[in-house]
Amino acid sequence: MTEGVPCSPLLTDYYQLTMMEAYLRHDMTQTAVFEFFVRKLPDQRRFLMAAGLEQVLEFLEQLRFSSETLDWLERHGHASRTLIDYLAGLRFTGDVDAMAEGTVFFADEPVLRITAPLPVAQLVESRVMNLLHFQCMIASKAARMVLAAPGKRLVDFGLRRAHGAEAGLLAARAAYVAGFDGTATVLAGQAFGIPLYGTMAHSFILAHGDELAAFEDFVRIHPDNTILLIDTYDTRRGAQRVVELAERLRGTDIRIRGVRIDSGDLDTASREVRAILDAAGLHEVTIFASGNLDESRLARLQRDGAPIDGFGVGTRMDVSDDAPYLECAYKLQEYAGQPRRKRSEGKATWPGSKQVYRRHDEHGQLRGDLIALASERAEGEPLLQPVMRGGQRVAPAPGLAAARAHGERQLAGLPAMLRDLAPGPADGPAVSDALRALARQLDATG
Hints:
Elements: H1 14-25, E1 31-38, E2 48-49, H2 53-61, H3 67-75, H4 81-88, E3 95-98, E4 104-105, E5 112-117, H5 118-123, H6 125-148, E6 153-156, H7 165-178, E7 182-183, H8 186-192, H9 202-208, H10 211-221, E8 227-229, H11 235-248, E9 258-261, H12 266-279, E10 286-290, H13 295-303, E11 310-313, H14 315-318, E12 328-335, E13 338-339, E14 354-360, E15 366-373, E16 381-382, E17 385-389, E18 392-393, H15 400-412, H16 416-419, E19 430-431, H17 433-445
Parallel strand pairs: 6-7, 6-11, 8-9, 9-10, 10-11, 15-19
Antiparallel strand pairs: 1-5, 1-12, 2-4, 3-5, 3-17, 12-13, 14-15, 14-16, 17-18
Helix pairs in contact: 2-6, 3-4, 6-7, 6-13, 7-15, 9-10, 10-11, 11-12
EC number: 6.3.4.21
GO molecular function: nicotinamide phosphoribosyltransferase activity; nicotinate phosphoribosyltransferase activity
Keywords: Glycosyltransferase, Ligase, Phosphoprotein, Pyridine nucleotide biosynthesis, Transferase
């Protein structure tokens, strides 16, 4: 599995094992269909973006119970011999259909469908939800930032405040799918090939005591990749010292690529810094900003014309501060060839194995989605595509660059109403007549 991502099959909820035990004792091992979807969009989201499929497929491919794991389960009384024997030979041999990573989706739409023997499809629920929920949540937040700052370089800075190591690593990946240009998380560069970006910390300046000396030491060690942090003491004075250093470096091959501002009024500060740099002829030196940024601040800086070339975005994206969870579910929709429908108040599901058809207008913009039975054929592009059959991938992984390019096309195809960052309702998908009829039929026989 991807480096840094846990893969133990015990990373699950205990009730998955207790249900498996009961399924096996009652010989309930026929084929089941489960679907992952989001019941309701957060108030602050007009759309969501799919991400995390690659980690799900890796998890399913490598699902194994080692002898040590089985010994622990039996020794502590968490599994009977019947269950231990079943788990010893367990491999995922089912089918997976899913939306491609980077796909925009809406409430009630199945993002992923698993078809497998009931005990296995049940067992994988917790980890599948864990992987999809988090990356979909982060990609959806990051996509709003991409829309807020078109044409600007966006870099993930959020590892240090992410909720754990895996969260920091996968947030970098999800943000890249949504259109970010890179990350400061080094392991994400190694694990996923995401471009790495980094500048310096205030501690580097403070350790030197002398700001200009710190700048010069850093630029001589990194002559081809220097972005200087200029707000440790006074931002204007820091910019003037960059000018002084540039004069010292005149005649050498060393060039200062940019400066970073991490505090204060970024609009005012960036204008002052740009004026100082331009007056010295340093037009090519870029301005990079960071510091508690979210899509609202990015949009405001963009609207006001702040001369900032790129942004480092951390905490507010990596914890999705305004919508820190999605109301997602992984529900049984069919068992032994028979559709199933949950009818709980406020949590009813559409029954059966389903497909989502997307329609576009003549300009290629999203016009609407239709949720239909998988057996139906409808107008539009079917969004759920086969990615695994019999436990084997149907094709090699498309790669993260392809997912990012797909996400870019998806955002470009959003109509203005969905691109709007302000809270507001988005039209939900339509539901086919056949699917509604099936739901009514099950309700009548319930």
